[in-house]
Amino acid sequence: MRKIFTLLTMLTISFANAQAFNGKGDTKFDVAANIQEHGSGIRVSTDFGLGENISVGATASYLLSVDKDGLGNKPDFGDRADLKVRFNANLGNVFNVDEKVDIYPGLDLGLRNFGAHLGVRYFFTDGFGIMSEIGFPIAKYKPEATGFERLNNQFTFNIGASFNL
């Protein structure tokens, strides 16, 4: 029940305000609920437009709800947190879809792995919309990760909103 309440709270907070990718000089700030095996939490990211279809940025995530291990231990802060730098190819206009839709595949380099992500945003107006993103590791720094080392080192699903800065 506590996990469901936490997730609903995060989603309610996340659906606040969003914006479309406008190209070079555009800055966006995403707030999302992070859902993965053995935990759920909050994720924030920011992206800076370098060109019409290219952006770079950073992501931070923190798992709020984490399962205990078999011995009843809970993970510490370092096990729950993750930081990443990212590169996106914003392809909404390349695919010639509605201007309210942005599709962005990308790569990220984090504290736990080198990975990839695929996201989509839908904008109700220039300043409000929703986003969803999946991410997965391509190369793990610890291929034989055990216990809490597996947190933030697996497939993730994020849903939330973006803010135009």
From TrEMBL:
Pfam families: DUF6646. Residues 1-18 form the signal peptide. This is Outer membrane protein beta-barrel domain-containing protein. It comes from the Bacteria. InterPro entries: DUF6646. The lineage of its organism: Bacteria, Pseudomonadati, Bacteroidota, Flavobacteriia, Flavobacteriales. Keywords: Signal.
